[in-house]
């Protein structure tokens, strides 16, 4: 998420405390102004049945201005569309299990203004510019449409990057701090002595069965995690040498065990285990459990 590109609807969604009612008010005003301007322009031109005057002497110049205007508006609409879509998708996903009270409407407004309205203005631009009586009026009409698209940015409060990041982090904090249901991920030690007495410098390896990085199907409702901890002895030069490994096996189940398993698959220790397993550990794996 690009903080400086936040519009008033996105900031109203993130705002908390004393800034909450201020940003809500500004978002409501921005919504009214944008919809009012677009409605007035569309109703006036469509009700008057304004037609394109191809026979006008300066019509070719108006067409050139319309082409340039279309490119600029297309770039603006694309940027607003992608930014608002990204924002809505991220915060809809992270708050799906616990939606923010009274905040969802700002995501809806963000969608309506920066996606739906943007597409409408893009297509309305062709007609609105071509009905201009002169090149000067065509330029003014183009600027008017661009201004309407940027109104929600003009109403944005003067928040610096740190304040924007803090507001977004607070929403993420509420999501991360959500208590985990005991039925979602259930972990049970089924073999070994546990990992309570390991030291910081102990060498250990981790494996998952079935291996999540191997190209093999896995449709089960559980998996196992095995942690190998080195047993060390001191040699004559007072160096710690791993002579054997103790294995602790955990059974992982639950309704969301597959998501937990996918997260574990990104751990680099799995790659380290494969490297070591190919040389030494797996040669006598049965004696470790």
Largest β-sheet summary: 4 strands, antiparallel
Number of helices: 8
Question: What proportion strand?
Answer: 5-15%
CA gyration radius, whole angstroms: 30 Å
Name the strands of the widest sheet in spatial order: 1-4-3-2
What would a concise description of this structure say?
The protein is an alpha+beta fold and 289 residues long.
Summarize the topology.
Elements: H1 8-14, H2 18-47, H3 59-94, H4 104-130, H5 135-154, H6 161-176, E1 186-191, E2 204-209, E3 223-234, E4 240-253, H7 257-264, H8 268-277
Antiparallel strand pairs: 1-4, 2-3, 3-4
Helix pairs in contact: 1-2, 1-4, 2-4, 2-5, 3-4, 3-5, 4-5
Can you put this structure into words, describing what you see?
By secondary structure, the protein is of the alpha+beta class. Helices cover 53% and strands 13% of the residues. The chain contains 8 helices and 4 strands, in the order H-H-H-H-H-H-E-E-E-E-H-H. The protein has a 4-stranded antiparallel β-sheet. Strand 3 and strand 4 form a beta hairpin. Helix 1 runs antiparallel to helix 4, helix 2 packs antiparallel against helix 5 and helix 3 runs parallel beside helix 5. The radius of gyration is 30 Å and the shape is elongated. The protein starts with 7 loop residues before the first helix and ends in a 12-residue tail after the last helix.
């Amino acid at each position: 998420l690009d903080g400086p590109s936040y519009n008033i609807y996105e900031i109203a969604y993130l705002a908390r405390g004393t800034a909450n009612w201020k940003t809500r008010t500004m978002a409501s005003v921005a919504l009214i102004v944008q919809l009012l301007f677009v409605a007035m322009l569309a109703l006036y031109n469509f009700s008057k049945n304004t037609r394109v005057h191809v026979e006008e002497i300066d019509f070719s110049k108006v067409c050139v201005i319309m082409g340039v205007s279309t490119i600029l508006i297309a770039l603006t609409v694309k940027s607003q569309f992608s930014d608002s879509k990204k924002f809505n998708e991220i915060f809809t996903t992270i708050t799906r299990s616990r939606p923010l009270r009274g905040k969802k409407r700002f995501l809806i407004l963000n969608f309506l203004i920066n996606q739906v309205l943007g597409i409408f203005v893009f297509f309305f631009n062709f007609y609105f510019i071509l009905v201009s009586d002169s090149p000067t009026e065509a330029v003014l009409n183009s600027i008017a449409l661009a201004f309407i698209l940027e109104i929600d940015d003009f109403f944005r409060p003067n928040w610096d990057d740190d304040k924007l990041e803090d507001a977004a982090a607070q929403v993420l904090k509420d999501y991360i701090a959500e208590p985990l249901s005991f039925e979602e991920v259930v972990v049970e030690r089924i073999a070994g002595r546990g990992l309570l007495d390991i030291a910081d410098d102990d060498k250990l390896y981790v494996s998952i069965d079935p291996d999540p990085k191997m190209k093999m199907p896995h449709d089960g409702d559980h998996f196992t995690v095995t942690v190998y901890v080195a047993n060390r002895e001191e040699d004559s030069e007072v160096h710690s040498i791993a002579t054997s490994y103790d294995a602790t096996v955990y059974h992982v189940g639950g309704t969301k065990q597959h998501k937990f398993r996918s997260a574990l698959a990104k751990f680099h220790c799995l790659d380290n285990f494969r490297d070591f397993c190919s040389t030494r550990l797996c040669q006598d794996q049965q004696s470790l459990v």
